[in-house]
Design a protein that fits this description.
globular, 6-stranded mixed β-sheet, 8-stranded mixed β-sheet, 16 strands, 308 residues
């Protein structure tokens, strides 16, 4: 999930085809790669261009993959209600992994009518512990709470998102069992700091919160996303693949930010966008061109050609 602004590249000088860092080859060290059965792709900074559009070339590549019998899963930090940008491109299965793995959503109904197929919630006590520990470690942190159908925030939380919050109150009140939305699952909490470097904030939060929650980030600002202890894009994708009899070797994954790293290292083949965060570039087994150059489509086209 990104701030609701133009996406900023994590590196200033994206690699280009022919440069030493650029590699979309599906052969590695002379050994053929297992034919793919599922493509898992992040959205913002990866599949989507910076203007949040899906290019005609990418639309065609996704359709061709599905026609070839390869499932395409959108795996994103976005909540379900922000999935209208790709709802027309989910093809037969209609499923997406949202909230960094906190929910599997059927998008067939369109915006506002999405059906939650699987919910992996953040226990309220874990969320309260995370809020307390991070407040102590980083004074000035402010919070928002993402639930299945609602979005609530503290009054000082900046306007980073596409919507007006349902409730304004301290995080401790928003997460209380007797809160107005106390019966609705919490998917994740968002933590923002106005001054700390984003990567430093992530490291600090992980040390402070420990095993009580999984902490990651996908924004260029100091905005963290805090989910259940074992919840990530990778763990939920693994569950979805197991249900389909698909092994990790049969998955090709794409991403650009730290919340994609577990997924990229789990998948049998993975690609970092050339505009990716340095840690993502280091984690992926391959690299493609930037999101604005249709890097996902470039790989899918080659993948289909080599396995046709």
């Amino acid at each position: 999930m990104r701030d609701n602004d133009r996406v900023t590249s994590a590196i200033r000088q994206p690699a280009t085809p022919g440069s030493p860092q650029f590699s979309t080859s599906l052969e590695q060290e002379g050994s053929p790669v297992t034919p793919p059965r599922l493509i898992a792709t992040d959205l913002d900074g990866t599949l989507l261009r910076d203007d949040k559009s899906v290019s005609p070339r990418t639309v065609a590549a996704l359709a061709a993959a599905e026609e070839a019998g390869i499932e395409v899963f959108f795996v994103t930090g976005r909540p379900a209600r922000w999935m209208d940008v790709v709802s027309d491109h989910v093809h037969g299965h209609g499923l997406a992994i949202c909230g960094n793995g906190a929910a599997v959503v059927d998008l067939h109904g369109g915006p506002g009518t999405h059906r939650f197929v699987k919910v992996r919630e953040l226990a309220r006590q874990n969320a309260l512990d995370a809020v307390r520990l991070l407040r102590d470690a980083a004074p000035g942190t402010v919070y928002a709470v993402e639930q299945t159908y609602g979005f609530n925030q503290e009054p000082a939380y900046p306007k980073l998102h596409m919507e007006v919050p349902d409730l304004l109150a301290p995080a401790e009140e928003l997460l209380a069992p007797d809160a107005p939305a106390g019966g609705e699952p919490v998917l994740k909490i968002l933590a923002h700091h106005p001054e700390i470097d984003p990567d430093a904030f992530l490291t600090l939060a992980r040390l402070a919160i420990g095993t009580r929650a999984n902490v990651t980030r996908s924004s260029p600002s100091a905005l963290l996303e805090i989910s259940g202890p074992d919840v990530s894009k990778a763990s939920t994708l693994a569950l979805c693949c197991a249900e389909r009899g698909i092994s990790h070797e049969q998955v090709v994954a794409f991403g650009d930010m730290p919340n994609d790293i577990e997924m990229l290292t789990w998948a049998g083949r993975s690609y970092a966008m050339s505009n990716a965060h340095p840690d993502v570039l280091a984690a992926a087994s391959g690299q493609t061109v930037a999101n604005n150059e249709d890097g996902v489509a470039v790989v899918i086209e080659q993948l289909l050609a080599e396995h046709s």
